[in-house]
Design goal:
Elements (H helix, E strand, L loop, with lengths): L7 E8 L3 E9 L10 E9 L2 E6 L1
Antiparallel strand pairs: 1-2, 2-3, 3-4
Amino acid sequence: MKFHNTERGYVRCDLTPQQWRTDYRTVPFVTKPGAPLNTRASFEIGSGRPILQRV
């Protein structure tokens, strides 16, 4: 899976026996502290269901 945007940020993954969830977190600026954190996109894959879903 690829997700592209022009903002800086990181990927947060949460894995449990029931699902894998990935959140793409970004900030609008990095030049000073205190930038608000945004979730640009989230995806999930459930256990036993090999289908990627955007949530």
